[in-house]
Amino acid sequence: MMRKLPLVAFGVVAACTVPDLRPLPAPPPAPPVIQPAPVPIENPQSAKQRFLRAAAANGCEVNAQTTPTILASATLSQDDLARVLQDLRNEGGVDLVPGQGFRVTSGACA
Predict the structure, then answer these.
(1) Which domain of life is it from (predicted)?
(2) Is residue 77 domain-resident?
(3) Number of domains composing the chain
(4) Rounded distance, CA 92 to CA 104, Å?
């Protein structure tokens, strides 16, 4: 029996040093990320509508100080602005204020 004791001891020690080759359980799947529904961006298509919104946001005045802001927020060029102002003036939607610029009197500024 004494002869087998070292053999059994070596077998036990060797069994502890063998790596465990059993596959690990897979991690649980991540919960699905729920994306909020995209908010539709309301962007009027016509230059006149974009101008009226930008003018209303800037106090309904079109002058040297507000023109760059209105052009940027309405994505208009100088030519577009001149055309829109002329159309609104013909329709009676813009009043000329001598020495100051224009006062919008239509849309949200009415």
Answers:
(1) Bacteria
(2) yes
(3) 1
(4) 9
> In sequence order, what E strands does 1-110 have?
61-62, 94-97, 101-104
Domain of 93, in residue numbers: 47-109
Spatial distance between the Cα atoms of 49 and 52, rounded to a whole number of angstroms: 5
What are 5's two structure tokens?
């004791």
Give the separation between CA 61 and CA 63, rounded to whole angstroms.
Answer: 6
Structure-token pair, residue 45: 């298509």
Instruction: Quote the Cα angle for 69-75-80, to 5°.
Output: 100
Residue 70 in any domain: the answer is yes
Radius of gyration of the chain, Cα coordinates, nearest whole angstrom = 38
Please state, as a whole number, how many other Cβ atoms lie within 10 Å of the Cβ of residue 4. 9
What would the pLDDT profile of 13-61 be if each residue is shown by its tens digit? 666 666 777 888 888 998 998 988 887 766 557 888 888 989 899 888 8
